[in-house]
Amino acid sequence: MTETVEPGHDALNTWALDREIVLSRVVAAPRALVFKAWSDPRHIPQWFGPAGFTVETQEIDIRVGGRWRFVFVAPDGTRYTNRMVFLTIDAPRHLEFDHGSDKDDDPGKFRVIVTFDEQKDGKTVVTLRQLHPTKQQRDATIGFGAVEFGYQTLEKLAQHVAALNGT
């Protein structure tokens, strides 16, 4: 069953390719388990974020309309506030949420769609699509290291799921 914040909501209808960042990773685990790692409040804080970063959860409510407020703590101690607001949860196929800093009306927040495609060999292709408000913000985000950090995050997901899967 798909749950959505607003009926008929479909971000891909207005998706601008010059404002997006797309990352993909094959995870050696069944789709249901990979989806659980993304959608279970006991799991996502354990692996989410770039290598060397830790997560301090302030609030976590992963449901349509719910939010996850957290702080990324960088290896040098720098703290980055974050907020995700969940818009669509279609288990175990996809999640859609807005992600930005932990403040209301953040002009830099961006839309994220994560899809989970099950493969015949028991693996899952995870694709993460980010849509930024402007091309300039997308370019600045890439310049900041978002692609490298995103792949580090997906690597941490794969490691976490491997531990859950006993592989």
What would you say this structure looks like, in words?
With 167 residues, the protein is α+β, with helices and mostly antiparallel strands. The protein has one domain: Alpha-D-Glucose-1,6-Bisphosphate, Chain A, domain 4 (2-Layer Sandwich), CATH 3.30.530. 26% of the residues lie in helices and 37% in strands. The chain has four helices and eight strands. It has helices at residues 31-39, 44-47, 135-144, 146-165, and strands at residues 2-4, 20-27, 54-60, 67-73, 79-90, 94-100, 110-118, 124-131. Strands 1, 2, 3, 4, 5, 6, 7 and 8 form an eight-stranded antiparallel β-sheet that branches. Strand 7 (110-118) and strand 8 (124-131) form a beta hairpin. Helix 1 (31-39) crosses helix 4 (146-165). The chain is globular. The two termini are 30 Å apart.
In short:
The chain has helices at 31-39, 44-47, 135-144, 146-165; strands at residues 2-4, 20-27, 54-60, 67-73, 79-90, 94-100, 110-118, 124-131. By secondary structure, it is an alpha+beta fold.
Cα-to-Cα separation, first versus last residue: 30 Å
Looking at the structure, what is the overall shape?
globular
> Which series of helices and strands comes N to C?
EEHHEEEEEEHH
CATH superfamily: START domain
How is the quaternary structure best described?
single chain
CATH class category label:
Alpha Beta
Helix content percent band: 25-40%
Strand-residue proportion: 35-45%
Layout of helices and strands, plus pairs?
Elements: E1 2-4, E2 20-27, H1 31-39, H2 44-47, E3 54-60, E4 67-73, E5 79-90, E6 94-100, E7 110-118, E8 124-131, H3 135-144, H4 146-165
Antiparallel strand pairs: 1-5, 2-8, 3-4, 4-5, 5-6, 6-7, 7-8
Helix pairs in contact: 1-4
